[in-house]
Amino acid sequence: MTDEADLREQLVYVMRTMAERGLNRGTSGNVSARLGLGMLVTPSGVTPDRLTPEAMVEMDGEGRAAPGALKPSSEWRMHHGLYTRRPDVCAVVHCHARHATILACVGRPIPPMHYMVAVGGKASIPLAPYATFGTDALARGVVQALDGGQACLMANHGLIVASTDLERALAIAEEVEEQAAVYWGALAIGGPNVLSEAQMVEVFQQFQAYGQTASPA
To answer: Which long-range contacts (CB under 8 A, 24 or more apart) does 115-119 make?
Structure first.
């Protein structure tokens, strides 16, 4: 089990990394990690370069911030809602990556036009309906759109990833933004050739054996 001090350091790292890699700008985006029955979430309105581990806001299972904590991200209800409704989720990364946000603003989910779309846990990257930021309605819409998956676009907003740990959530966010860029480019020259359902089933089968799944002999 990752301890609280380590989680606080990881949250700072993820926010700074997203800024460095162009997934966020300014104070946009937010990150959280499950902590016991509650969570740690990034504070509201603090740029990544000013973040410190101590600035991360601890919130309990009822959505109450610890005494003396900074004001939590305006999106804390979305993070809290995901942890409440998805016991498999231990990390949430939300960003306004450019190409993912472009697609979200025109109402386009990402179809299975490349096998790496499957990194989000489903054959396509779905689109959650628009709801005002910071509301439980947004959290409900995101959970429904994810439908057990790990990534979705948020209409007229951005991208969100809900995964098992912060490292994996960041990696998925980066790959979804890459797939969004590929799809955006494909649309500009006539549209992509979409993989079939059977082809995507094979992709998920291959994913199960990908990487270092066992210690070398």
So the answer is: 115/195, 115/199, 115/200, 115/203, 116/175, 116/178, 116/179, 117/179, 118/200, 118/203, 118/204, 118/207, 119/150, 119/151, 119/172, 119/175, 119/176, 119/179
